[in-house]
């Protein structure tokens, strides 16, 4: 079993380009569907939204809706900051890594308020990365709407996974936290 963990970790280390979804946008064909599909093609998006959903499921009932609204608000604010080039892309990428690490810590601890709020704020960096890249595109609003729609769906999947984990998987939050940390470490490569 230990050797399988080492092999899996080594294989993950060989594919850092799959971890971060930000390079390689098709600026010429920006539409709702390219924005919608994009979050499903990068581990950073998937892990952030799923981990965030699992975290918000576990903190308090009222945080589930607040989490969704906070995530959407943070992404929109990030898109706006990025479109104005107020933060360099490299800062956004490190912010994304920080958001995944913070989610990992939050899932490993019993934080009820500070870490979920911080995770929401750090989601802004996911929006900044795309706002910076898409600012030159004329049809960016529709693509952003697609991305936010997809991220909201992934977040709801995370809520469902959180409910499942809480009921059936005793250490499930820690497993999701570990996966988020792995994706963050791959992002550093």
From TrEMBL:
The protein's matches in InterPro entries, at most eight in alphabetical order, are given as: HupE_UreJ (IPR007038)
Give the coiled coil ranges. Answer: none
UniProt keywords (A-Z) are: Membrane, Signal, Transmembrane, Transmembrane helix
Q: Where is the signal peptide?
A: 1-21
* Record bears the keyword Transmembrane helix: yes
> According to its UniProt record, what is one Pfam family this protein matches?
HupE_UreJ
Q: Does the keyword Signal apply?
A: yes
Q: Transmembrane segments in this chain: where?
A: 37-58, 65-83, 89-107, 114-132, 144-165
Which domain of life does the protein's organism represent?
Bacteria
The identity of this protein, by name, is HupE/UreJ family protein
Q: Which organism is it from?
A: Acinetobacter shaoyimingii
